[in-house]
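Intended use. Records like the one below are meant for learning the mapping from a protein sequence to its folded structure. Do not use them to infer anything beyond what is encoded.
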Amino acid sequence: MSLKAHREDAQLSAIKQQVITGHKPQTGYSLHNGFQVYHGRLVIPSGSRKAAKLIEE
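Structure written out for the chain above:
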């Protein structure tokens, strides 16, 4: 997954910063091994070219 896609998604970047700085993010978001997750599932930015490939697999 592209870190660039995460950086370009303003909403995901804001949520990640909330998690990192200890501010309460939107319910369900956290970091796991450096990856952003939502209710335990990997967060994939909507503009990611790898989203379709991950869904295939």
